[in-house]
Amino acid sequence: MNYKNMEELRKELDLLDNELIKLIAKRFKFIEQAAIIKDDISKIRDNERIESIIERLRNLAEINEVSPDIVEKLWRYIIELSIDLEKEIFSKK
Length: 93
Prior knowledge:
Elements lengths: L5 H32 L9 H17 L4 H24 L2
Helix pairs in contact: 1-3, 2-3
């Protein structure tokens, strides 16, 4: 993928961002459902599951030639946001 100028590159980035937002929205809808399904607030943070996710995504990052460290940092942040959302929803049940 070679681009002739920044405008062309930015247009592609904007399109990708649009798709990412749709995927993030879909992921957080699943998180909302998880909060509804869980019957105990202590089940919201599952450290074993978190580490399993991180390991899987680090491997996937390597396969896709992106920094596993960047992917891990990003996903740990997403996971913390997910936990915050679950706690918020759980507290309203």
